[in-house]
Design a protein that fits this description.
The chain has about 80 residues and is mostly helical. It has 3 helices and no strands.
């Protein structure tokens, strides 16, 4: 399975959180559309079928990437 680059994935997760906050405040149709688009992107990027699974997979991938990066700096 193809995986998004960690920096891209991190940006998607951060953007999702920001949009959720914006939508909670404004309930705007534009924010909702952006959340739906981002949900699709996160699901496609992680191979998940719903946003909760996509966010969990993204966080696992980011944690793994960080630990591999830390190991490479030490090794």
């Amino acid at each position: 399975m193809r995986m998004a680059h960690p920096l891209v994935l991190e940006g998607l997760v951060e953007q999702y959180g920001m949009l959720r906050g914006l939508y909670a405040e404004s309930r705007s149709a534009e924010a909702r559309r952006q959340i739906e688009d981002l949900t699709h992107t996160l699901c496609a990027s992680t191979g998940a079928r719903d946003i909760d699974a996509a966010l969990a997979a993204a966080r696992r991938q980011l944690a793994r990437a960080r630990s591999e990066s830390d190991f490479a700096l030490v090794g």
